[in-house]
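Practice set, problem 2.
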Amino acid sequence: MGSDHFRSDNPNRFGDDRAPGPSTYAPNGQLDAILFELGNANARIASDRSQGLITPAQAHSLRFEERMIRREAIADNAMDGGKIPMGRYEQLMTQVDNLQSQV
């Protein structure tokens, strides 16, 4: 989950004998991924609400949850200069997955 939002400067990917290079975060890549998934969830909430599949109260609750995850992700990203630590990124993506399973 999320491995495409990181890049590796590992020279061993070419099969040579040098020590592996550092793995680095793609700036804002984790935040972009979270926001993209939250946008998808928000669109599904709107669609389900317009089709009468969920009540206004359910839509309100789901949107509140979406906003809270968004705020957490933006705050975490800002605290570390555009880099959400991998452990925290995984926690946020689990929250996003849980939200999407409710929609």
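Problem 2, part (b): a different protein.
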Amino acid sequence: MTDADLRSLGIEPAALDPAPPWTPRWEAAIERLRARHPCLLCGQRSSAAGVAEVAEHGRLWVDRCMPCLVATTPRGGPQAPVEDTVTALHESAREAGVALTIVTDGE
């Protein structure tokens, strides 16, 4: 996570706790979760302790609950339109000799 990522979520990096500089950080993350910090976005108990690397502030803890983590984790580049995905699936099924029925919630 970067400074821009944090700010896009309305999180001010200066308000975050410093994270340890060493890796691996699993032991530190487990200890962080045991301390029961609140989710930075909704205030519920955090269930994920991540680290952001911010140039001006160093490594910072980013505590989120699972719903907020899922909702705010980037999923890669732009998604293809559903029609393109369905076409690709049909082509792959045809090449593999597999019968395929696709149901979408589209119109």
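Answer key, part (b): The mean pLDDT is 85. The first helix runs from residue 3 to 8.
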